[in-house]
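User: Chalcone isomerase domain-containing protein, Neopusillimonas maritima:
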Amino acid sequence: MKVCRQDQAVVLSRRCHGALYALMFLLLMGVGVSTSSSQTYDPLSSESADTAGSDESKAQVATPPEVREVLGDAQLQGQERFRWFGFSVYDIRLWVKAPLNIEAWAGRLFALELTYARSLEGQAIAEKSLEEMQAQESIDAQRQASWLSFMQSAFPNVEEGDRLTGIYRPDGGAAFYFNGRETASTDDADFARLFFGIWLSPDTSEPALRRALFGMKE
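Assistant: Predicted structure for Chalcone isomerase domain-containing protein:
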């Protein structure tokens, strides 16, 4: 009986540590782009986001005002929900004027919209974004500091239902919006390529999510 109790204690301890790790990560992680709980724009309901690839689910999604302003008659190429240890973190959508080629996305105008499912600090979103960018390519210390400062100004704290939207310009650069309001913009082509590469690059840490954004079925 003593051995059995010890084994049970070990299992319980491991489960507790796993749960705590997941919760701590959610407090620290975040990568994002957009949605407004105070505006009339009504994003896709959380129940529908799991059917990301279906034409029916795409038809239910209204184009965000900031996306419509820049892209005009935009279409939704793909969408997916990002989860961590079973927790919903955000829904992400790829808006385009015409379908993007998975191998040549950097040459086209598009928008990524993130609708958050929980509260996250802007500082954590910026830091996690930089970490994911560094995973794609080596970034010198000076640019790390500059880009982190820029993202801290671009990404405010978010709560459930808030949206962060990023517009990628093929001529180099990006603009960011919080619930439809522009927060920051840059002409730095390297920053834009690596930032949007967090989701779209072959080196992404979430390849299944990448395929879903490009509308590719498993």
